[in-house]
Every structure is written in C-alpha cells, then in structure tokens.
Amino acid sequence: MKFSFRTLLVAGVMQLAALGAAHAQSELDAIKKAGAIKIGTEGTYAPFTFHDASGLTGFDVEIGRAIAKQLGVKAEFVEGKWDGLIAGLDARRYDVVINQVGITEARQAKYDFSDPYISSPAALVVRNDNKDIKTFADLKGKRSANTLTSNFGKLAQSYGAEIVPVQGFNESVDLLLSRRVDATVNDKLSFLDFKKQKPNAPLVAVAFADGRDLNSSGVLLRKNNPELRDAINKALSAIKADGTYKKISEKYFGADLSAAQ
C-alpha cells in the first residue's frame, strides 16, 4: 500500500511536469500550427508603425514580418491604441506586441521580452520660439504631451512635468504646434523622421537623454513562454546575420542600427 501510494505520487508529479512543459511549448506550437503569428501594433507611430499608400508599414512592421518569416509563418497585425496594446496581449488578442515597447523592470515583472531590437534616446521637443525650456530640468511645472504609460511620459514626470495625455506621437506634435502644451518627450528617431517629412515645422529638439535613459525596445510576450521567446531571439539574430536588419534600418533611418543592439 505504501509503495503503491509513493508510486502514484511520483507518477502524478511527473505528469504535472509533463503538462507544464507542454503548456510552455503550446504558444509556439499553436503559432506554427496556425501558420501565423498575431502581432499587436499601433499603426500611427511613424517611422515604426504607420500607414502609407501600400497599407501598414514601418520599421517595427518589417521587423515583425522578418521574424515571422524566420519562424516559417505569416505575420498578422492587429492594430490598437498605445494605451490598450498591452491589455490586448493580456486578453490574448495577439501573440506578441511589436511597437517600440520599452524594456523596463516594471514590465519585466509581468511580461517577458525578446532581446532588444532597437535603442534610441528620448528627445525633448519644443517650439523653436520657446526660450524657457533648454534642458530636461526645465520641464518642472510645464505641460508635456505624452502617452501616460510610455517610458517617455514617465521620464517627463520625473522632471516635474504635468502630463497632458495623448494617444500617440502625432497628437503630441499637434498639441505642441497649437501651443496647447509646452513640450513633448519622445523618441529621437521618431522626431528625426518627422523633421525629414516636415522640415519647416517650427519644432526643435533641445536636448537628448543620456545613456541612463536610453529606450531599448523588445518584442513583448506573455510570461512563461520560453520556447517562443527563444525562437524570436533566434530569428532576430538570424536577420542581423543575413543583412535583413541592416536593409530595414537603412531604409527607415539611413543607417545600420544593428551594431548598437
């Protein structure tokens, strides 16, 4: 009787371990079985994810497609507003989020990330006739347009800014141009792309955050999916090795950013 009980106990533990392993593999297996990886993205954050005449495009979108190709599946994008993107991952609307999601300790407590696929400092942007804001410290008591849950919004708050909530970069710029806010703290690469598209816009980046505030972004996943995370990391390494990443980054930024990751 004692032997039988112990045997059953050991068998039960082994069965639970097997079920746990199967669960850990299930998301990657499900993606391959479906033939597609569903990717949450914003669609309004140039040059990373936006629409042109061809449809949804951008640096993050092409990185997502390249990852999917390495996985042997199609990329299916599900668009949503920034402040709801991570909630969509919780609700299983998609498998991952690729939308310049900054890797932070707070997010890592609840989610997993791939290796960083791009890093960019925060830029402090104001109107070119603003004489009061020259450094991040000058944000104290000023109004900054930012998405509430972004790293950039938190950075502005850390310097004492009052956050005026927006849905994305374009709305931040519109509020700044119409003088409804004093500044926006945003991605340097996004601002440089904006200036490339609209060189006469009366906006200027007066400061860039130092290395401590470098915004490194990764593919966001639900916790406890090591096989999917490892497969994505392997895909990222592959597209850097075969020149795909270089081609994409040169297309959007005019430079190979792979060495900085």
Automatic annotation (TrEMBL):
Major localization listed first in the record, in broad terms: other
Signal peptide positions (record): 1-24
Alphabetized SUPFAM superfamilies for the sequence: Periplasmic binding protein-like II (SSF53850)
A Pfam family it matches: SBP_bac_3
Keyword field: Signal
Domain annotation Solute-binding protein family 3/N-terminal: ranges: 36-256
Record localization: Cell envelope
Originating species: Bordetella ansorpii
Family named by the database record: Belongs to the bacterial solute-binding protein 3 family.
Gene3D superfamilies: Periplasmic binding protein-like II
InterPro entries, alphabetized: SBP_3_CS, Solute-binding_3/MltF_N
Protein name: Amino-acid ABC transporter substrate-binding protein
One GO CC annotation: cell envelope
